[in-house]
Amino acid sequence: MGRVADFLEGDHARLDGLLARATAGEQIELEAFELFREGLLRHIAMEEKILLTDARRRRAGEPLQIAKRLRVDHGVLAALLVPTPTLELLETLREVLVEHHPLEEGPGGVYELCERLAGDEVDALLARIKEVPRVPVAAHFDGPRARESIENHLRARAELLEK
């Protein structure tokens, strides 16, 4: 794989490790979860703001075919990070990630495709990805709107997957 894939797949592994650490016991380890939460939001920003945007530009404004699916997944993941974490929410988050990572990683994944599109400019693309700043993380919100948002995002994802 190339440098962009190596970097982003390495970040997946780091985030997966934090999630595993957060859920290793009977109770959620909040320090590990908060590092995971902040890291996942930054990772999503790297993909949305740099990687997918760059690919669209290189394709004369045409988004990658898989971009809609990735954005729907990113919306679900972000929504799941809003309320105070529960083991049930984190299991749903893990299930989404297990289905999501293969879309991006490995031969034929989005990372490889974006590297090919970048061609000789792949190092500049990677530099821009690495420059994405930390994402400000708000306090958890547990109101009914948070649950409604999760349900709406999961429903939209299910509908997309049915197509």
Q: Please give the alpha-carbon distance between the first and last residues.
A: 30 Å
H/E topology pattern: HHHHHHH
The residue-averaged pLDDT reads 96
Radius of gyration (Å):
16 Å
Which residues form runs of ≥5 with pLDDT under 50? Answer: none
Basic shape: globular
Polypeptide structure, described:
The structure is a single chain. The chain has 163 residues and is mostly helical. It has one domain (3-162). It has 7 helices and no strands. α1 runs antiparallel to α2 (30-58), α1 packs antiparallel against α5 and α3 (67-80) runs antiparallel to α7 (144-162). The longest helix is centred in the first third of the chain and has 29 residues, at 30-58.
Question: Brief overview, please?
Answer:
The chain has 163 residues and is mainly alpha-helical. The protein has helices at 3-22, 30-58, 67-80, 87-104, 110-118, 122-130, 144-162.
Topology overview:
Layout: H1 3-22, H2 30-58, H3 67-80, H4 87-104, H5 110-118, H6 122-130, H7 144-162
Helix pairs in contact: 1-2, 1-4, 1-5, 2-3, 2-5, 2-6, 3-4, 3-7
Keywords:
163 residues, mainly alpha, 72% helix
